[in-house]
Amino acid sequence: MALEIEIKYLDVDHDALRSRLDELGGLPLGSGFECNVVYDDAARSLKASGTLLRLREVNSRYTLTLKRTANVAPSAAKIYEESETEILNAPALREILAGLGYAPALRYEKIRESWSLLGCEVCLDTLPFGNFAEIEGPEADIMACALALGLPQTAASKATYHELNRQHREASALPAEDSFVFNDADKAKLLARRATD
Q: Do 180 and 128 contact (CB within 8 A), yes or no?
């Protein structure tokens, strides 16, 4: 399995960051609306073992991803072992997962706009609970990229979006909910804005 090394940055101004990426010669890689379904068994044994099994749909393309907590030295970045593959027949895959005892455990959505800069992938992520940036690459390159973009380390986080959703719901006195998806009105607005960008 390959290592996924990343740091998230909280409460990001996407317009300002997009301008900075353009100034620095960043290369746009595309964007899309992501629908993610995390699978687990009835006992939630994958979650308990630090494993994530996810089916993602972006622009009518499907990717199956397996992530596991990596056994590495402590780091400022979040590090996972990751394997993924494109899926050509999503209904068949869902039948296979069900046959193995895996069912949807939670859903989440985001709009992701990706750029390449200084050897890293920089993602501008819009989630139902806020705007974030995620930088993925070698740890030293992530730090150099964040510095060039003016992202403060005080805004850096190793948390997953699932953890950030939980923190947001606790801070907002909302009931606990593992899934995080856009309501219909917000989703329509965001997709309309994407169509005019």
A: yes
| Sign of the four-CA dihedral 10, 12, 18, 22 | negative
CATH ID of 2-196, from 3.10.310.40, 1.20.1270.10, 2.40.320.10, 2.60.120.260: 2.40.320.10
pLDDT band at 72 (very low <50, low <70, confident <90, very high): confident
Under a CB-based contact definition with an 8 Å cutoff, are residues 32 and 58 in contact? yes
Q: What is the pLDDT of residues 137-192, one digit of tens each?
A: 999 999 999 999 999 999 999 999 999 999 999 999 999 999 999 998 988 888 78
Q: Is 51 helix (H, G, I), strand (E, B) or coil?
A: strand
| pLDDT higher than threshold 90 for residue 127 | yes
Q: Which residues have a Cβ under 8 Å from the Cβ of 177 and sit 6 or more positions away?
A: 165, 169
